[in-house]
Amino acid sequence: MDSLKLQAYGKINLSLDVLRLRPDGYHDVRMIMQTVKLHDNIDLRRTKEPGITLHTNLAFLPTNENNLMVKAAKLLMDEFDIHEGVHMELKKVIPVAAGMAGGSTNAASVLYGINRMFRLGLSIEELKKRSVTIGADVPFCLMRGTALSEGIGEVLTPLPKLPPCSIVLAKPGISVSTKFVYQNLHVAEQPPEAHPDVDQVIQGLKEQNLRSIAENMGNILERVTCTAYPEIEAIKDKMRECGALNSMMSGSGPTVFGIFDDSKAAKRCYETLRFGEDRRLCKQVYLTEPWR
After folding, report:
1. pTM of the predicted model as reported, rounded to 2 decimal places
2. Which of these, 75, 71, 67, 70, lies nearest to 96 by C-alpha position?
């Protein structure tokens, strides 16, 4: 296999709770991850000349080992002593640094692609074990679907699929540092009501009750990010005004998503945020649905 075309899908968090700060400096989390159909496109090509090269459509993205795609390719090529090379082309669509695991899903796709291209014979479970060294979200991005994520994010339990719905994604024109958010959360000082009821969302998934899922969504990181960046709360409010069952920030932000049981209302919300008077709130807006 000399070339391979891949789609790297983004994610949102249907619920996100932070339980405690660990001795190693990481945080124990309990969250529900959901793959969405918004995706980047990746082309892989074998080369006779050794080495790993990467070209992207965004000039500001690194193309060296600071890029998770390069780290992923190097991880497997070093382990299996591959002397050929690989060239990677990335067309980025998922917003960057947006709480949607864009870098992690690119890395996951490269692991999958290198495994296939060079016929390494690794299972998805074997790839997941290796992938956690690249990033905590990479194992889920290999798995895809709907899952409960625990530990630092690497302990995954499959959950029933999110019922059919429309999802509007909106990223304001700001960048949010994940490190800043976690450092300022002070989880031990948070009141009980700050912690979302993850179990209720799981129950909603089991019952396939979209309204119950939406009503019980919560993200404890909003207590930091929404305070620092009020435009996030403004986007959430606008999505609810447009008919979203609920709206929430994904990950550490700043991307906001709204869940709709009415596809026409979702389209109107997309058009309002993308082209209407409220377009100043958002830099990027997308209309998508759950990956199934």
Report:
1. 0.95
2. 67
Token match 């001795």: residue? 23
The Cα–Cα gap between 129 and 119 comes to 18
Query: Catalytic residue numbers?
Result: 11, 137
Contacts 24+ apart (CB under 8 A), 198-207: 198/15, 198/17, 198/30, 198/31, 198/32, 198/148, 201/14, 201/15, 201/32, 202/32, 202/148, 202/159, 205/32, 205/146, 205/159, 205/160, 205/161, 205/162, 206/159, 206/160
Q: How confident is the model at residue 102 (pLDDT cuts 50, 70, 90)?
A: very high
Kindly indicate the confidence band of residue 278, based on its pLDDT and cuts at 50, 70 and 90. confident
pLDDT of residue 66: 96
State how far the Cα of 6 lies from the Cα of 52, in Å rounded to an integer: 17
CA–CA separation, 141 and 39 (whole Å): 12
DSSP-derived pairing of the beta strands 51-56 and 27-47: unpaired
Name the residue among 146, 261, 137 with its Cα closest to residue 202: 146
Residues 275/258, Cβ–Cβ less than 8 Å? no
CA nearest to 105, candidates 66, 128, 62, 137 = 137
Residue 25 scores a pLDDT above 90: no
pLDDT value of residue 1:
80
Q: What are the CA-CA distances from residue 110 to residues 4, 45, 59, 71, 270 (Å)? A: 10, 11, 20, 9, 31
Q: Going by C-beta distance under 8 Å and a sequence separation of 6 or more, which residues neighbour residue 45?
A: 2, 3, 4, 86, 87, 88, 89
